[in-house]
Predict the 3D structure of the following.
Amino acid sequence: MGISNRRMAEYGFLRGLYEDAYFPDRVVDRGRAVLVRLCERIEAERPAGLAALYVLTHAATEEFNALEAEFEAAGSEIETVAREEIGEDFRAVAMTYGFTGAEPEELMATREW
């Protein structure tokens, strides 16, 4: 499908994790794919408000929850640096798609990390 929004298509998702050897690229790639799918879903479903956006971001957060075991198996984890990076990317997605009133904590309210 691909992201049609140019800013998000060119956005460096999880850039800080790729730059840190503690986070294995093969697992970070899966996290990047979660964020790309989130953008694609926002573009396809066009959520009408914050409640609808949060449904999509919570689903993406659940995918990150599932990735935690893969990070751990690779000798890593979703810790402070990763949480901040993921959170920043969630905020960038919300802002880019016009959800300027999105609460950063609510975007990832279902996180377990």
